[in-house]
Amino acid sequence: MSMLFVRSMALSLLAGTIACSPKPIPTSPVPVGARERVIRVGTLKLTAIEWRGEGTPLVLLHGLGGNAASWAGLAHQLTGRHIIALDLPGHGESPVATTWDYMPLALGIVAAVRSEWPGKHIWVGHSWGGRFAVVAAAADSTGTQGLILVDAVQVSSFRIADVAGTVEGLFKGELDPWPSLDSALFAVRTLPQFSPWTPDAEVAFRRAVVVQPDGRVTPLLSRDKAATVLRTFATDNSEAISRIFAPVLVLSAPDSFSERAQRRLFPLAQFVSVRGNHWLHINNVEGTSREILNWLRQNGL
To answer: Which residue from 287, 87, 89 is spatially nearest to 206, judged by alpha carbons?
Structure first.
């Protein structure tokens, strides 16, 4: 037997081992009535969920640990509207970007959205996504027809003293693996970010985890990723506000940590307090959608 034959057989066996190695099981469903799209600009790749409809499209940017499907309940309440929800980098089906800095990421998000949906946009952001929504609205310039902030983090500098403790407090029960998908679904249904538990909430959770070949379920949000993002809140992007000339709606939970800062930053905005927790678009989807629809009508959008 020649050495060439032995080497060839060895390479074939190695290739077969690699090809047959276990891979994570897909767990990212698409919400009812929507379709999934992949949009790219440069090195930035984003997955979007789109509900086709009429009017200026609402571009929805979720908070830390969320994903495009986190907006499904709201999208179903905004019947007939054109809605585009993005998986931000490192969330849902979007890979991690090369930076977490707001300005380059927001510019990439705007360019990617314009490439698929040119024209006018209404930017909507929850929590961390609210910061992106402000910078994106400024970058979209005359394309921005409105800005909606849902209990959003302010774009002025906001330093968190205890980052690790804040991560544990915000995402307790969602950072460690579960032994199975069934146990995961049972464990998270009482968490505030999935309350009330609905089919839409389950779709959002499934999009936020990976089922490993051995059945274990691991979250896409890690402690390190969450801490890295929280540290970016110290960045001051408030200069972007001077380049937004469209109407602004700010929705806040009763115990909002950022409403006072938002009032200073957006003195001409319309402010509405909505009953619920920080995840208003999930916890009180009816109240949140009602205020958004009223504001859209009032502003002819």
So the answer is: 87
Query: What is the structure's pLDDT at 1?
Result: 40
What residues contact 268, with CB distance under 8 A and at least 6 apart? Answer: 248
CA proximity to 250, closest of 239, 261, 237: 261
DSSP state for residue 211 in the 8-state scheme: E
Helix (H, G, I), strand (E, B) or coil at 147: strand
pLDDT tens by residue, 41-78: 999 999 999 999 999 999 999 999 999 999 999 999 99
Residue 166 burial (CB count, 10 A): 15
**Domain 26-158+236-298 - what CATH class?**
alpha beta
Q: How far apart are CA 224 and CA 185, in angstroms?
A: 23
Which conformational region is residue 158 in: left (phi greater than 0), alpha (psi within -120 to 50 degrees), or beta?
Answer: beta
C-beta separation of 109 from 77 below 8 A: no
DSSP labels, 216-250? -EEES--HHHHHHHHHGGGS--GGGGGG--S-EEE
The amino acid at residue 262 is Q
Q: How many helices (H) and strands (E) does the chain have?
A: 11, 10
- Bridge pairing between strands 121-126 and 144-150: parallel
Which pair of tokens denotes residue 51? 């509900």
Entry pTM? 0.91
